[in-house]
Design brief:
The structure is a homotrimer. Chain A is α+β, with helices and mostly antiparallel strands. Chain A has 3 helices and 5 strands. Chains in contact: A-B, A-C, B-C. Chains A and C meet through strand 2, strand 3, helix 2 and strand 4 of A and helix 1, strand 2, strand 4, strand 5 and helix 3 of C. Chains A, B, C: Belongs to the CutA family.
């Protein structure tokens, strides 16, 4: 990979992705919102191709795109894992390096301290 | 979070996300392209769950996935905010840490200096 | 952009995006999976607006969202470029800064060393 190293500016915000069964996306999103663990959740349908224990899988899932404080990421991961129907759910965190300041502030206000 | 600290390689490129009303996605995308502020915009429908001023909201939106130079991110944020119909639009920036070199170069060429 | 500099924690994992013709998404995803270059691929339809050699383009594409080891990113880029029908395909890499530990471990196990 390109070698020009540079620490990314931090906004205190992150995006968390998780794939879930379509039947559970609304429920999981609303429970995380009610716990003030995330400020907003976008849901979009995806087709997921992967291997599970050697078997090729081709599933229709919903991708949850959750916006929250970076400091809450570990707690969101633990809570979502506890609600999630899969044995090993995909829950990953991506950094947000900039944004519209009032929106970044809104995410902070909408999520627990 | 995992503590192995590592500055990410930088590519000079970023991805900017914004959620917009479906009726405005094409217009906003084309205006940013015409101003050479972004090289490419992907548009995909999402369902958005969030609270606004204490009210639970459940909206159909379009997610704009914009690819541009990192150095243009602040300008894209300001310009998009000026065109956007929401009071506090979601406009966030994610880092791109590597990519197909000719594509990264194309993004640089397609956007203003 | 905000100036508070902070090296992001690294997980050894990344997400790779590429836009492809809808007719090729399944084939390209399965070939990368078979080569153990990626652990999982989500596919979602997008509308892409951009300019190519001065011409405004408005295409229906599929976005491939691939999860893999960061150490494999360059190889995935080269292999996908070799299979991809476009002259200059979009292939970009985003960092994953945290995640559900068993899932991060699964991505490592499912992809070649």
């Amino acid at each position: 990979m390109e070698t020009m190293q540079q620490a990314e500016p931090a906004t205190g915000m992150c995006v968390i992705w998780s794939t879930v069964p379509p039947s559970r996306s609304e429920d999981l999103a609303k429970r995380l919102l009610d716990k003030e663990l995330v400020a907003c959740v976008n849901i979009t349908p995806v087709r997921s191709l992967y291997r599970w224990k050697g078997e090729a899988c081709d599933d229709r899932e919903h991708l949850l795109i959750m916006k929250t404080k970076k400091s809450l990421a570990d707690l969101v991961i633990r809570e979502l894992k506890g609600m999630h129907p899969y044995e090993v759910p995909e829950i990953i965190v991506l950094p947000v390096i900039a944004g519209h300041p009032p929106y970044l502030a809104w995410v902070q206000e909408e999520t627990r301290d």
